[in-house]
Amino acid sequence: MKIKLFAIVLIMLGCITCSKNSYNTNPTLKFESVNATVFPQPSVIIFKLQCTDKEGDVVDTIWVKRVSKVAPCEYLDSAAAFVIPDFNPPKNVKADFDFTYNYPVDVSGQGGATMSGCTNLGASLTDTCYFKFWMHDKAQHASDTVQSPEIVLLQQ
User: Fold this and answer.
1) Among 7, 14, 60, 74, which one is most buried in terms of CB atoms within 10 A?
2) Quick one: DSSP state of residue 116?
3) Contact assessment for residue 31 and residue 147, using Cβ atoms and an 8 Å cutoff
């Protein structure tokens, strides 16, 4: 009986000590989804990301970089920094981020993030691009960089 009890205690202790915490000091960023891969004009593009962090200090900055695969559209390649609002997250936080863009630029004055189409010497071109996302937490720990699938921005 003592041997069985000892074996059970050893197995339980092994499970407890060998289990990995899925939260790290560096924030972990995961690309979840995008609402489509081909966007006519006008469209709303929504990227969904998920972040985990051990300390819960994810309220700093997240970057989004658009990378065009069409040579004349390379001038659109840029990174934009967005401040993450202070939402007082707990330790071992799991947070979801949605990035929403209006395509093309919304000239109605309604606000929100906008995305320009590709033009080259006055001609509008369909653009194939992808987006990269990364972030820093308050302690300036950097996450990994995640990437969207290819996105096609149609011109009409």
Assistant:
1) 60
2) P
3) yes
66: left (phi > 0), else alpha (psi -120 to 50), else beta?
Answer: beta
Residue type, 61: T
Alpha-carbon gap, residue 77 to 63, rounded angstroms: 13
Rounded Cα distance between 105 and 127, Å, is: 15
Mode of pairing for the β-strands spanning 78-83 and 123-125: unpaired
Q: What is the pLDDT of residue 16?
A: 45
Contact 94, 33 (CB under 8 A): no
d(CA 149, CA 50): 16
Which domains does the chain carry?
A: 22-153 (2.60.40)
Sorting pLDDT into bands at 50, 70 and 90, what band is 3? low
